Each structure stands twice: as structure tokens, then as C-alpha cells.
Backbone:
């Protein structure tokens, strides 16, 4: 289970350390940084698939994702005695840092600007990875460090250095500055620490862009093949539901549909190898196809298919799942999420007060984000309630 998410220097997240439980719900007003937190989760997940630097570039480059405020917000600025402003010179290097801990391991990645070179490269504005660290236990400590990647190379703990240089613990490997150790050092025998973290990160799933418009792929017949994991955009909804119906989760899935829409039953029609969604409702003489479903009904079916996956992920993050749902359906959605959290760790980002309150009453850890001085903060989090986190130094 992921116990802590840490973000430094990403958009409005100047320095956020967020504790996580089996079921965590994050809320806040519009513009306080909920979407930034969700995207930071996604960006961290990209380290294990070779897309980290590309994802930063797709977001507009490092200059577009860095914290735009002052390096530090002083007590005088918080009291309103002086305006929020920079000091004219930086004490720390420009840096975007992301990290997390599990019950057993921790990982952080530090990204910054490249050193100017001659002759200049056409890719001179691309960010590069300055540091990556993997450690054992809940907190970064020198004695607990298992692997450390810096500009000088990759160093491993002494007992893990048997496959490289036993005296120094350095791995003789040339890593390009845009490639993560989670993507490059894949060796479950000799590099189990990197492989373990990579497997954790690759198991995360994100859902925030379900298409429910009239031309959405989820409304159309789809190729019928066994599908245990719903695609991020829901394009394979029909085969995913068919897979669930033939699994041990058929009963809970059907109960969740009936809980939201009394008397409703979902079926899949096989049309020469293409599967089409059918919804049987009381009082109707024929089933409704995906093309006829309301946006809210289709979205609920997508959420149920994601949450009842026969192959649950280690972590699932949902961004504003209540979109286009009627308030009467939110209690059923709450029960669906609570049940899903028994099988997978679930983080829900929402601005629906009824949904947030219902999840909190069901035992979810509740974080409310605020933005009093231009930076996102966790409401009520102080020095004693903030998880211990050390970024270390380059």
C-alpha cells in the first residue's frame, strides 16, 4: 500500500506531503490544486514506462510545470505585512521532485535543467533526471539507501553491489539523463530494489477521461476478447463487462448496478464477434443499447467496470468520478467505492460535498486542499500531523 505521496515544485504544489490510507478522498474548491495533485500522481507513474520526460514536454516543458511562486513564503508574507514576492536570488537549484513510500520501500525522482553544453544541442531545453533514490523503510536515510542515481552514476547498497563493483557499490552502466532507473535497470535477480519499485508503479491505474458523448467508443460495438482491465478512456467497456460476468465478481457487479438503478440488468450481445452493451430496465419491452444510455448511466457502468476488474491494481486513482451523475446515484457510488477498496487501494479526487462526506463517514481518510497564499496546502496539516519526509540534496 502507498502510505505517502510527496510533491515539490510542481505547479501550485510547492511542497506537499500527503498521507494515504486504503481509501483516501481529496477535495477542495475549484482552483486549489486537486487536478495538479492528480497529474503529479500520473507523472510519477510515467517514470516506470519511459514516458516521464515526454510527459513533462507534453505539458509545456519544465518551465510550464514548475512552481511559479517564490522559493519560500515567509511568515511576514503570510501575515500580510509584505507582498508575496521573490528574494532576487535562489538558494536551492530549480527542481521538480516527486516521491512516494510504501510499507517497505521509498522512491524519489529529482528533475532539473541541463548543464549548458558546447556545441549546443537542439534538445538543450529538455529537462533531465538529476537524482533517483530507492530506500528501505518509511524515511530516506543514508543507512537505508538501496540505490542512488546521481550525475556521478548509480550507487547501490554494499550488500546489493555484488553484481557490479563490490568495493565501491557502483554500477558500471551509462544511463541517459532522460531515462529512469525504473525503466532501464530491469533485473529482478541483481537489481530487485529497482524492479520492486517499478512493479509497484506500473500497477497504478488512473481514470478521469471517460468519454460519454454521443460518439464515445463505449457506446459502440467492440471487438469481443477477454479484457480484465478497462482502458483509461473506456473504449473496451463491453468486453470488460463480459469478462467480469464470467468471473467471480459477477454477483457484486450486478448488485452494484441494481443498487444504482433498481431492477436494471446488464447484458452483452455477441454480434459475430463484436460485443454490444445492453441494458434491461423494468417496463421496457426491449433492451437499451449503449447509444441510448444517458451520460450518467454510461459513466456509472464505466466506473463499476473499472472498480470490479478481475485483476485489481495496487492503486487506483479516480478524478471527479461524480461528473454527470445524478445526486441520487451518489450513495450507490459510495458503496461501490467502499467495496472496491477492500481489493485495491483507492484515491478519489472530488469536489462533490455529498460524495466526500459519505466516503469520510464510511471510514475514508479525508484531505481538503486549500490555497491561501498561491500554493496548495493540506487544510489543518501542521508540523505534528505532516508525515516525515526528507528530499535530501543533489
Residues:
Amino acid at each position: 500500500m502507498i502510505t505517502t505521496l510527496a510533491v515539490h515544485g510542481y505547479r501550485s504544489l510547492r511542497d506537499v506531503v500527503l498521507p494515504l490510507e486504503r481509501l483516501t478522498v481529496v477535495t477542495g474548491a475549484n482552483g486549489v490544486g486537486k487536478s495538479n495533485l492528480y497529474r503529479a500522481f500520473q507523472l510519477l507513474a510515467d517514470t516506470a514506462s519511459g514516458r516521464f520526460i515526454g510527459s513533462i514536454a507534453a505539458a509545456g516543458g519544465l518551465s510550464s510545470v514548475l512552481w511559479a511562486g517564490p522559493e519560500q513564503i515567509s511568515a511576514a508574507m503570510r501575515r500580510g505585512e509584505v507582498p508575496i514576492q521573490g528574494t532576487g536570488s535562489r538558494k536551492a537549484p530549480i527542481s521538480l521532485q516527486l516521491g512516494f513510500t510504501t510499507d517497505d520501500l521509498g522512491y524519489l525522482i529529482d528533475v532539473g535543467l541541463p548543464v549548458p553544453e558546447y556545441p549546443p544541442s537542439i534538445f538543450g531545453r529538455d529537462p533531465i533526471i538529476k537524482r533517483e533514490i530507492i530506500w528501505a523503510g518509511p524515511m530516506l536515510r543514508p543507512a537505508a539507501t538501496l540505490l542512488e542515481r546521481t550525475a556521478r552514476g548509480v550507487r547501490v547498497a554494499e550488500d546489493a553491489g555484488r553484481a557490479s563493483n563490490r568495493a565501491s557499490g557502483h554500477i558500471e552502466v551509462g544511463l541517459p539523463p532522460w531515462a529512469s532507473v525504473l525503466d532501464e535497470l530491469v533485473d529482478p535477480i541483481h537489481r530487485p530494489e529497482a524492479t520492486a519499485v517499478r512493479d509497484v508503479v506500473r500497477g497504478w491505474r488512473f481514470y478521469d477521461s471517460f468519454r460519454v458523448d454521443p460518439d464515445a467508443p463505449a457506446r459502440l460495438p467492440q471487438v469481443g476478447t477477454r479484457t480484465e482491465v478497462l482502458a483509461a478512456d473506456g473504449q473496451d467497456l463491453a468486453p470488460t463487462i463480459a469478462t467480469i460476468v464470467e468471473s467471480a465478481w459477477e454477483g457484486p457487479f450486478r448488485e452494484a448496478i441494481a443498487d444504482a438503478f433498481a431492477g436494471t440488468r446488464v447484458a452483452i450481445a455477441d454480434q459475430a464477434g463484436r460485443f454490444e452493451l445492453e441494458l434491461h430496465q423494468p417496463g421496457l419491452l426491449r433492451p437499451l443499447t449503449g447509444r441510448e444510455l444517458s451520460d450518467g448511466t454510461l459513466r456509472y457502468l464505466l466506473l463499476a467496470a473499472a472498480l470490479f476488474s478481475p485483476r485489481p491494481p495496487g492503486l487506483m486513482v479516480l478524478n471527479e468520478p461524480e461528473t454527470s451523475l445524478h445526486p441520487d446515484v451518489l450513495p450507490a457510488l459510495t458503496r461501490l467505492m467502499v467495496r472496491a477498496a477492500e481489493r485495491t487501494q483507492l484515491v478519489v479526487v472530488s469536489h462533490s460535498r455529498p460524495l466526500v462526506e459519505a466516503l469520510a463517514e464510511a471510514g475514508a481518510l479525508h484531505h481538503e486542499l486549500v490555497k491561501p497564499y498561491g500554493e496548495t496546502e493540506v487544510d489543518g496539516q501542521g508540523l505534528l500531523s505532516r508525515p516525515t519526509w526528507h528530499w535530501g540534496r543533489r
